[in-house]
Amino acid sequence: MRIILSFCFLFLFLNCEDKQTKKKTTLETEVAKPKKKEITKSTTDLPEREFPKLNSRSAMDFFLEYDKHHKENTVRLTTDFGNITILLFNETKFHRSNFIWLTKQHYFDGTQFYRVIDNFMVQAGNSDDKKTARKRAHIGKYLLPADTKRGFKHDRGVVSMPSSEIDNPHKLASPYEFFIVQQRGGAHFLDGDYTIFGKVIKGMDVVDKIAAVDTDDGDWPMRNIFIRKAEIVR
To answer: Which residue from 28, 48, 79, 221 has the least number of CB within 10 angstroms?
Structure first.
């Protein structure tokens, strides 16, 4: 459910607030709500379990060890609008390792850009397809701590991780989702609240095309935009 009760309460008292400002105050994940679906090819089946199912207690130790053996740092996303290549920062090793891990688990294949605000950001990694929920259940339910003191800024093109919910004072990050800052000049009011763990090194024109599509009142594109494939480049 994408309409959060606390948000609705606030809206009743601040209904004269500018709509775009309200959209930019938080970047929490939202539960993907049902909507009209397109007929698409099925995504990759769940892989055989090679690693333990993760939870918030085990995830940090897991990714600390994973980081020692998996140094890849570049991922290419094949989308309905073209390719986006992302360089992941070694400084945020838990978040880099998480993204590499999920890519190798084929998690992102078949997920969507489900929240799009032109001249702000595009957010991806969720879906209204039950297959995405099954992938999450297979991999595990966990959060990652914020890592915001590396000196990175929310400049145009950076890749950052949204927090898990609005009532989240420690800004624990939702590991399955990410957003790309599309705003020209950056969105520096987000600095210190969300973990920047990479940047787009090729394909910002694709990000701009995605950001420009028509959306509904909840910022979901009127026509679903899929990540068809995520793959390690190097």
So the answer is: 48
Domains of the chain: 55-232 (2.40.100.10)
Three-class SS of residue 98? Answer: helix
Strands (E), 53-111: 54-55, 74-79, 82-88
What is the mean predicted confidence (pLDDT) over 173-187? 95
Query: In the predicted model, what is the mean pLDDT of the chain?
Result: 83
pLDDT band at residue 43 using 50, 70 and 90 as cut-offs: very low
Q: How many CB atoms lie within 10 A of CB 58?
A: 13
DSSP 3-state of 140: strand
Please name the residue that has the structure tokens 């007929």.
Answer: 39
Q: Which amino acid is at 114?
A: Y
Per residue in 80-101, pLDDT (tens digit) is 999 999 999 999 999 999 999 9
pLDDT of residue 199: 98
Q: What is the CA radius of gyration of the chain?
A: 17
Taking the C-alpha atoms of residue 83 and residue 98, their distance in angstroms, rounded to an integer, is 21
- pTM (2 d.p.): 0.80
220 φ/ψ angles, rounded to the nearest 5 degrees: -85, 130
Cα 105 from Cα 47, distance rounded (Å): 7
Angle at which helix 59-69 crosses helix 93-104, to 10 degrees, equals 80
